# Entry
Amino acid sequence: MKILLINASPHGEASHGYRFADEIVGMLREHAALAASAIKMIERDLAAAPLPPLARDYARAITSRTPDKAQFEVSEQLIGEIEMTDALIINTPMHNFTVPAALKLWIDYALRIHRTFASTPEGKVGLMRDRPTIVIVGSGGLHSGERARQPDFLTPYLRYALGSIGIHSVRFLLLQGLVMGEATVAEALDAARVQLSRDAVFASLAAQAASSASMAASTAAQSA
# Structure
């Protein structure tokens, strides 16, 4: 089983969300009684390896009836990474109420007409296969719940963007108040763990992992 980790945190491996993503993979292995090698993590670190900005030639290719396909090289690479994996984990901070620039650029490359979505009279229709997706959202402040002090444009936007290419099985795990001290961080992580343990998307992902491991074991036994 292959999981694509999209990391948009500038803190990389030091971010709480990044470490929690690694913990989720460990939970999957434990839940499905899998060996460490049964789940392969493919990482796209948007902070450590920034994507090139969209330029005029790409914009022309998108709107052309006979596009220069060389302009889609980066887009094809990113889309291919999604296609070759069974699930997504996105680790992103909330920057100024919404997604950071690095993740927005990834979205702009991944949402491509005639490739990942079709334009219809009813709107965009996704052309990609749905897959379990967990989005970890880290924020210094509070944007959800009774103590929220700022709006959240990230979750509705990202849900709609992913749905536009066909990914609808999405669960958001909110790590809020990360600048409010260790106790608040621990509370946020514990709440996310509880939510995950009861979550249908995570359960589907665990079942898929177990099924993949069972099929691999069966194939190995037949080959022996």
Notes: The first helix runs from residue 16 to 31. The two ends are 21 Å apart (CA to CA).
